[in-house]
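Batch manifest, entry 17 of 40.
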Amino acid sequence: MDPLTQGLIGAAAAQGTTGGRLPRAWLVGLLAGMAPDLDVLIRSARDPLLAIEFHRHFTHALLFIPLGGLICALPWLLLRGYRERWRMTLLASTLAVATHGLLDASTSYGTLLLWPFSSTRIGWDWISIIDPLFTLCLLAGVIWGGLRRTRLPALAGLAAALLYLSLGVLQHGRALAAQEEIAEARGHSIDKGEAFATIGNNLVWRSLYRSGPMIYADRIRVSWKGEVQWTSGSRVSRVTVADLPEAVSGDARARHDFERFSWFAGGWVAYPPGDTSVYGDVRYSLQTNAFEPIWGIRLHPGRDVPVEWISRTGDRELRLAELWSEILGRSADYQSLQNPSVP
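Output type: structure tokens
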């Protein structure tokens, strides 16, 4: 999630458990809730993939929570008032750190919750990385609880946010069920399928499924009542290690860097149309109806640094009018799933 929301859920957890007994508990939780993202400082000019490999890595793992809570509590324990309440301080910071990895795992990016026992990137796809309704629930509870120096408003805000997240779980399941119907109508069997909430809502979902060598991307709108509409998107060929050019597969470092990127992207790797020099992450696209990767890599076998990280995050435009039309179910591009015309 975005840093503000990460801080707010940590603040709500801290205020909700120790508010009234620990001064500025919300501030202790706010800072501890954001702290795991300090892993963004792990990077190297000699290894462009180091940053994506270690972001949401060990600092987000369940096993790291006690140590992370202790580290975040130490600066506060230098102050007498918090040192006298060291148990409350440690509890507030530890709970805040605990919320971080779990919330990140609720998005699509992927988090190493089970490190060091597993290198699997866990992403449950229940909520977008930015969702104002979720954030506002937490913000209202934290502000009210902080001003009143009491626990109940923060707990209420946290409960409302979790209720909204639970709705995302339900919507995600509906989107995956719709994905299966679309694939069946096309005569496809799904080898792997995922659905990602689009920015700021849990009504419109980006559907990705793999059938054989092809990846199919569609848009699915699921109303809160369960009514489903959808529109067909793009299809691209998946790229695996076996598909790499001989020059790349013959260079151990370049091949390893492709494997690292594929691990990061959850295996959703393909060439953008017309450009076989770029390996793109199919999960995220600049366009809704075509594959134009937001980020990817180029490989340069034989060079000292054989991988080039490509990011077009700055080119990303949030077409609010278009998205709002989709959210309201007014987009002319959508059709009912009950009588689909499936390309």
